[in-house]
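User: I'll paste a sequence; please echo it back and then give the predicted structure.

Assistant: Echoing your sequence first, then the prediction.
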Amino acid sequence: MARAPRTTKFVKPVKTIADIVALERSPYDEVIPSRNLHQVFEATALLHADRPALSVMKTGDPEETAAHLSHSELLARITQAANLFRSLGVTADSGAVAFLCPALAEIPAALLGAQVAGVASTINYLLTADAVADLLIAENAEVLVIPSQANDPETWQKGKNVIERVPSLRFVLVIGGESDPSRKMIGFDAALAAQDDVLEFQLTADRDTVCALFHTGGTTGRPKLVRLTHGNQIHAAWSFLRCTDLTSSTPRSTASRCSMSAARLRRGCPSWRQGAISSFPRPTALDIQKLFRITGALSNVTE
């Protein structure tokens, strides 16, 4: 008899010393069943298919049009992105998929899809072109994801300026842009839409498989790269749920740059895995008071 899907969330509250002792004696696989990120989102989509999973505000006003995804839609987008990156030759053993982008609506699913297919890296788009190029070279980036000129003129220009400086780059995906084979550019939106929402490759990633790189702020010198595994991400999400007591009805809003890879995923993924809503607004020009009124998430907003 097949077991029902389980998300990475706490089952029993921890309120006493006896609860802690019981938790410590529990087999890890029973407490945290998922072996990789895709399994987490797959289980949540099976349990809460039509519940809202993600809202990305396109402007600073939360009452204006936002992009919304249910848990089943989020899983589909993650899977499409994973298929797209794998079709470009991305694996756990290849160079990284680097994101040089603000927090656009397409980013959360694309970032997770890149981790399912291989290794993702988010780079602070406020860094100088020299620092960006150094990081891309250090992580042997093979795919670079940037916004179109219409989406973000400054980041678009910075991305263009570093492309020729990184010998390992094979493809540049442009969110909101068109393909230009002469410059190794592929229109992200059309390429994603062409992908199936069922994984087209065998998923072998396990808890110890590296899936993400993030860099330090560079305040004590040049930015340094740090690795994260699937297990790191999943355990951090479970721990975060333990500490914050998020439930399937708890809205959570996160306003942070896309470059904050580890922080963003630890803040957002617990909500997705519990079955709650997670809003990823752009941190600039954000009307915080209006956001509070709409989401009721005053105690759950982080910057």
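Residues 259-268, 297-303 have pLDDT under 50 and may be disordered. Residues 36-196+205-300 form a domain with the Rossmann fold fold (CATH 3.40.50.980).
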